[in-house]
Amino acid sequence: MNTDRSPIPATADLVVVGGGIAALSAALEARRLGLAVVLACKGKAGRSGNSMVAAGNFSLRRGQRRDATFAADIREGGRGICDPALVKRFTAEAASAAGFLESAGVRLCRQGERLAWKRIPGHSLPRSVSAEAAAYPRTVAGLSITEPLRAAAAGAGVCILDDTPVIDLLVRDGAVGGVAVAPAGAAPGTLRTGNVVLATGGYAGLFAPSSNTSDTTGDGLALAYRAGASLRDLEFVQFHPLMALHPIRGILPTTLFDDGAVVRNRLGERFLLRKTGMEDRETPRDLMARAIVEEVREGRGVHGGVLLDLSEVPEEVGRTQFGRLWQALHRRGCDPAREPVLVGAAAHFSMGGLWVDATCATDIAGLYAAGEVAGGLHGANRLGGNALTEAVVMGRVAARSATQAARSLPSTLPAPRTPPILDPAGGRNVRRQLGQILWRCAGVTRSATGLRDGRGEIGELAARVGVTSRGTGTRAWSGAEGAIAVARLLVEAATRREESRGAHARLDFPAPRDPWRGSLRVRRCPGEPAATFTFVPAPDACDT
After folding, report:
1. How many CB atoms lie within 10 A of CB 250?
2. Which of 6, 25, 64, 470 has the largest CB neighbor count within 10 A?
């Protein structure tokens, strides 16, 4: 518990919920624009969520004349269902992300005076640049971004509330009025505001295995859904193909492929060309993860994974551009020039999220969303490097939108829900069991039978989450309830989408189907216990 935590103010112009790059970018931008900003984080801002463990790659637009393909690459990666308005806004503003980051103290890798560009699979040219993270351990390289952003936000006057999760959005007549919080070691309270930016990350952390941090559990989606906001594309979860299993553990950068890395099966074969029709350096994450899982299922895997061959990566490149990875391998007795690394697929990123427009506004007045908690930009599959750029760009867009809206403070607040008492250990058990269920029924490949079984298992798990007499448990209750709600919606969306598209792969519907080129919009209307799913065709699909 943070004993130095700031007191909770009664009011704020803007409350930002989250603690990663999107939240810190939104808070800093809004404060620079003159708003009184409170940032509420369930952990420690800057050390919460996936931003802390991110590899630090940003895909940036390299000027209109030199990078007219950025939007096309995103649409191609998203398999035809990206929101065109979001893509347009994102690509138009992506070039400014580098200047904003550097103004906040983040150091980007350079070759002389120029940014050091790398190419990531799925991108048609080198447009990725990394944060300089040599001073940080490989497993928490993202601190090279989040720590400067936190310092800049605090220095600008943002009120940062660590260990203070938001457990309820207080909405009246379709508009935000405030938030309910459950600070560690203190009684739950409320904070009045007319504007809230949700930047809480995604829900891929609900799966096991997952590359996500343990606190990435879909909280923001659960809050917004319960308040009546629309969600979209929840069936699309990206599985990273390079989860190192031995001799080290953790996500490896796909930029390795640009320098000669390849994946091989137990027979030593380079199988991606056979499986996907593309070379390793060209294969996007969704197709690569699926190919790896299929190779294992067909008996050509190695201990549940495949082999990442680094022998063709030049030694100088390995020691300089991937220095911490090379050092970690050598510490474990692995010479990357001679010995491959065992890798497999793990849940990594959720393309689904809140339904927002190009200003990051939801369908609740005063409620905005930015970063992985928002859906629509990436469609059915995200390109590498776009997640951190999205966090910066759309976090700033959300802040500017909230500033321009300038909603006044509500005179009164609706009462927050009264939480039951739940044993915190029970909440952790729910997460563990839920992760196993989701991996079995809604992992890299899915089927009607598996999804039906998973839906039943989640229902049984929800029935077992009861009230106990131990501890206050408000945070545990909120997390468990939200995780189950999001998991149920994910499985229902995956059941309804009877095709394979991007990261959603159905064994019983193995090909994309044009009638499904669009998004499933889900919302719980006031007074209705069940979710309503509506299929919305992609805008350009309406014209074909």
Report:
1. 16
2. 25
**How does the average pLDDT of the chain come out, rounded?**
91
| Bond from prior residue into 209 cis (ω within 30 degrees of 0) | yes
Residue 372 burial by CB count (10 A; 0-12/13-18/19+): exposed, middle or buried?
buried
Task: Point out the residues that are catalytic.
Answer: 285
Distance, in Å, from the CA atom of 225 to the CA atom of 537, rounded to the nearest integer, reads 21
Task: Evaluate whether 263 touches 273 at the Cβ level (below 8 Å).
Answer: no
Whether the bond into 126 is cis, omega within 30 of 0: no
Q: Which CATH entry fits the domain spanning 242-345: 3.40.50.20, 2.30.29.30, 3.90.700.10, 3.30.1360.120?
A: 3.90.700.10
* Dist CA 415 CA 410 (whole Å): 13
Alpha helices by DSSP H, listed for 322-385, are 323-331
In tens, the pLDDT along 126-180 reads 999 999 998 898 889 999 999 999 999 999 999 999 999 999 999 988 999 999 9
How far apart CA 195 and CA 362 sit, in angstroms, is: 11
Each domain of the chain, given as residue ranges in start order, spans 17-235+348-405, 242-345, 424-512
Closest Cα to residue 349, out of 61, 54, 84?
A: 54
| In CATH, 17-235+348-405 is 3.50.50.60 | yes
| Structure token digits, residue 279 | 């070379």
CA 373 remoteness from chain centre? 7
CA atoms within 13 A on the CB side of 115: 23
User: What single-letter DSSP state applies at residue 106?
Assistant: P
Q: pLDDT tier at 415 (50, 70, 90 boundaries)?
A: confident
What lies within 8 Å, CB to CB, of 539 at 6+ separation is 83, 84
pTM of the full predicted structure?
Answer: 0.91
Q: What's 356-370 look like in SS3?
A: CCCCCECCCECEEEC
Q: Which of 440, 462, 465 is nearest to 452 (CA)?
A: 440
The count of residues in the chain is 544
The region, left, alpha or beta by phi > 0 then psi within -120 to 50, assigned to residue 49 is left
Burial of 419-445, coded b for 16+ CB within 10 Å and e otherwise, reads beebbbebbebbbebbbebbbebbbbb
Residue corresponding to tokens 């189950």: 484
CATH class of 424-512: mainly alpha
